Amino acid sequence: MPFVHRDLRFNRIREIQPGAFRQLQKLNTLLLNNNQIKRIPSGAFEDLENLKYLYLYKNEIQSIDRQAFKGLTSLEQLYLHFNQIETVDPESFQRLPKLERLFLHNNRITHLVQGTFNHLDSMKRLRLDSNALHCDCEILWLADLLKTYAQSGSTQAAATCEYPRRIQGRSVATISPEELNCERPRITSEPQDVDVTSGTTAYFTCKAEGNPKPEIIWLRNNNELSMETDSRLNLLDDGTLMIENAQEADQGIYQCMAKNVAGEAKTQQVTLRYSGSPARLAFVIQPQNTEVLVGESVTLECSATGHPQPQITWTRGDRSALPADPRVNITSSGGLYIQKVAQDDSGEYTCFASNGAESIHATALIIVQALPRFTVTPENRVVTEGQTVDFQCEAKGHPQPVIAWTKGGSPLSVDRRHLVLSSGTLRISGVAPHDQGQYECQAVNIIGSQKVVAQLLVQPRVTPVFASIPRDMTVEVGSNVQLPCSSQGEPEPVITWNKRGESRPVQMWGGGCDSQMAGHVLRVPDVSRNGDPFVATSIVEAITTVDRAINSTRTHLFDGRPRSPNDLLALFRYPRDPYTVGQARAGEIFERTLQLIQEHVQHGLMVDLNGTSYHYNDLVSPPYLSLIANLSGCTAHRRVNNCSDMCFHQKYRTHDGTCNNLQHPMWGASLTAFERLLKAVYENGFNTPRGVNAGRHYHGHALPMPRLVSTTLVGSEDVTPDTQFTHMLMQWGQFLDHDLDSTVVALSEARFSDGQHCSAVCTNDPPCFSIMIPPHDPRVRAGARCMFFVRSSPVCGSGMTSLLMNSVYPREQINQLTSYIDASNVYGSSDHEARSVRDLASQRGLLRQGIVQRSGKPLLPFATGPPTECMRDENESPIPCFLAGDHRANEQLGLTSMHTLWFREHNRIAARLLALNPHWDGDTIYHEARKIVGAEMQHITYQHWLPKVLGAVGMKMLGAYRGYDPGVNAGIVNAFATAAFRFGHTLINPVLYRLDASFQPIPQGHVPLHKAFFSPFRIVNEGGIDPLLRGLFGVPGKMRVPTQLLNTELTERLFSMARTVALDLAAMNIQRGRDHGIPPYHDYRVYCNLSAAHTFEDLKNEIKNPEIREKLKRLYGSPLNIDLFPALMVEDVVPGSLLGPTLLCLLSTQFRRLRDGDRLWYENPGVFSPAQLTQIKQTSLARILCDNSDNITRVQADVFRVAEFPHGYSSCKDIPRVDLRLWQDCCEDCRTRGQFNAFSYHFRSKRSLDFSYQEDEPTKRARPQKELGAKHGAPSNATTASSELSEGTATNDFKEFVQEMQRTITDLRRQINTLESRLSTAQCVDADGKVHANHATWRRDACSTCECRDGQVTCFVEACQPAPCPEPTRVDGACCPVCVEGPQENTPRAS
């Protein structure tokens, strides 16, 4: 008999899983009252179509999901009283057509959105009394509803006001608009006439204010528009009407009406004028990459719209015509249809849509899944005993096949001499006679397998003898000479040549071996190439001058305190990772060498090497070019990635980003070149920036000085507060940017030619690229001719470096960081950086921590080494810089606070994971916590931050996540890093606000931005990070206004110091764009499918302000010359977003690549379990603030949105949190997992894949082996080929096993000792190695007191109060400055 009544009361039920009652379709009554349920999720009661009575009262319910009661079509009575409900989604009670009784009394409901009780046509009893209802204008709709109920007499309803106090206890039904001071709507932004063509998008702006907030309604020809019946019509959040794919029927008269309970207001009538031709072409359906098996059929859909109607044609990816094959057809809708797909059909196909006026195209791949096929096959080899032999074997297929080797049909011997490389090559070291025989290479994938064989013949050793000897020769100067010399022996003898009187061997060019002459030949290279004689001297000079300039800069920067903004900038940008320094140095030496050779040749040639007619590959011989690459260090810095440890790579990220994309392991890795959307634009075509030659004209006009563009167009004193978003929106953008990109700039502040400082000479000699100051600029009065600027370091093999190779590669720049959103700003982008921030001593997976403040929470550790940018003035800033995963963490105080939050978040998670899984080792805890932190950052960025920046239009361009695409390169685009993402500079407030717990200014006051740079002492001495964080989420941000771009704090006072010339961030952004060869704005307009601009009037749709267009015209002369950065900043924002159309295009493109090209993206199935992913999606920046600030207890749920304090703020207890219990190992042998890894690995390496399971083992086996637990979380490596451990195991294998066991036991003892010391040691050891007893206290210095607590050292820093005199002095032994002559009572206190 089916259940009709289910009583689950008094069971301490905490949560209801979606679908928990799916099998109880006949259920009539469900009692869940008097439990501990906190939330009703979507689909909780799905399929209970016969349920009539649902009891949920007296629980702890705080929130109800939108679809919580979905499917309850028969529900009549719903009891939700005596809970903790604060808000009710307006759609929660929709689709409950038979609901008669709804009890919501005795909750905490403050507001109800209009429409919450719509469609409840059967309602007879509604209780909302004993809540915390705010009776304001927003609730008048409820008053009207209650009056309607009272007049009809069919429904009893109760609702009382709690606020304001003057009407507390009043029935909502009795309140009127007059006593609530409701305001009629007033229009604040009127729409304008619009001209559209077929297929384009039109916007009508309408903004209104009133109390309550007015509803926006649009009329066309005096009839209300329905957004539901026409999907092309969209009403954006700010009231803007967006009409997509405009049609002739859209033309007419439009009017906006704003309406609320107090009245209504209408805008002026405006006209939409429709012009049918021509409408720009646009794809309706773009072809998508498609996988297909051989023999099946496939269709690539393609459809476009435009006027005239476009025709669809197809070609192969190389623009060649489709084959004349009856299998290949184009469908009536434009799709490409291929029957009986063959392997040759694999490849790229391009769909063209043309209508005579223009043409667009899109490409897609057909990936044919097929049997593996060998691309490299092993060859028979004859080798001498003792040599090493490689059998190369590579195969392609789809999916990519796995390579496995056998010998004579049996598994290979398990010893260290036999090694299968990641490429598939079999390497046998120390070949022995018994290695002779047949070797089989098998390529296997899910479709099938292929095999190829090769023979190995082993010969004994033979002593070498000469077969021919050189003879004396007489030759003319400048000619080639060949001296023959050959020998015989096994292995083949190595021949070296020496010149009499010299001990150094002579270089043999061309590899030394000439197979046709059956001997070795000494080749003297032809010296006819013009640059060859200068190679040796140029290399020496380049190394000397570059190293001299770099060492001079290092001495200047690190042996003293910063003397100018130039020094601050150089210190700020100077790489901390030695590998980064080495790579940048190599690129500079390589390029400097070639420049010197070029100069030498120019002195003796009547040819312009800067022209385009000269063949650069004739300048230096290829062997000499290789020599330059070797001696400069370029060759040594070509990384060879190793992705063989799949147990690690399947689960965790590398610190440097390698091996994320297993097919292209260097995609997105640190210290690789930025990607490009468009070809670089340099003045000479390969490496000199646009504008480097002041006399050069572009399209008839010279390029303006970047500083002139800044002062004319960008800099502004005015700030308009944002009504929607807080300053935290800017701060998250900067923190995110420091996870994505950091350009490696030249290591020297001085030019290489003579060592003079770039700011002193104001020239463009490498690496200088000074920003010239125009006449009449205020900086001229200070005596400055230029601002300091040096070029970014080149990638080896680009720019000047590539000129002497067979093809010219434009100069590329190095991204020092990983491209992925992986929290590299917390952990670093290299193993070296990661080790520097980890606490490796505790084995708890923690990050290093610094001093602990009174709150009990630590700050970041201090950076060690010489004085840094944070100690430019000892009287002001005695505190060194903090150390974090990104070297820019101290740039400004808001950013430093964010770094502190996230380092604490890692340690909070790590501590919790250790408590849940005490058997995990430190590395496992570290990588699991790092993985969670990275996922939290991804979720906050894409679900909370990006929707506000991109708006509805941009999020639609971004598209939904559809899974990992290994064909997408997630690398950072140069234009994104150099121009597009710098839009955040326009959001920066000129003041960093500091607020106390009551959101009032702290006694020390707010901080002007130019005083917040490199000032960690303000965190240590002036209240910690909480005041700064409150100032970020409690204060409105700076609104993006085209006439108010970068505040003068950034253009006139950047890194300012006394008696020095400050820098200009806007001018630096423009100069950096030219340095990087970023194409002009117009090129990106075309890339983003905007119209070409031949005149400045053609920009009026994107830049509506005529004054701005006139300024651009005066500066640039031609719209084809405009730099990308300033143009992106002055574009009018797309309604509902913060960006203009071109900027929206570039950001959505980059963030789509970052997401889709990340194999370890948090939403990619398999990265987290479904239950873990559900918890990750609980993440919010509000929760991070609550968990990791010093003492922040109230925040708004969305810290990016402006809220009124205190009503708009919630208690931290009410902010959802990630439940880390989902990361707990739930198994019987967890406590032994990970401790016997070496022991179990020995057995795993001896097992055969043929008998992976015990029940498959033949009965004749005498002694079966049992595998011990594998290390936690490490996936099994299914590609490992190994043989069975038999009784005939060689003696050396047994010795190896014993040694391995001894090492394992030793390691276990060490771990046990570490754990015992962690649990039992109560003493402490300070930084000087001195031991202190438990609870002992001591002074570390004048300002710090330390205490030993249960083996942990906790240090407290004394905060200095403002001294009561104008000029306090420092006294030895005292922490704070003192007044020598006593306080001066009449002296005003400094603000």
Automatic annotation (TrEMBL):
PROSITE patterns: IG_LIKE, LRR, PEROXIDASE_3, VWFC_1, VWFC_2. The keyword Heme applies. Its cofactor is heme b. InterPro entries: Cys-rich_flank_reg_C, Haem_peroxidase_animal, Haem_peroxidase_sf, Haem_peroxidase_sf_animal, Ig-like_dom, Ig-like_dom_sf, Ig-like_fold, Ig_I-set. One of its GO terms (biological process) is response to oxidative stress. GO terms for cellular component: extracellular space. Gene3D superfamilies: 6.20.200.20, Haem peroxidase domain superfamily, animal type, Immunoglobulins, Ribonuclease Inhibitor. Belongs to the peroxidase family. XPO subfamily. This is Peroxidasin homolog. It comes from Dipodomys ordii. The lineage of its organism: Eukaryota, Metazoa, Chordata, Craniata, Vertebrata. The gene is Pxdn.
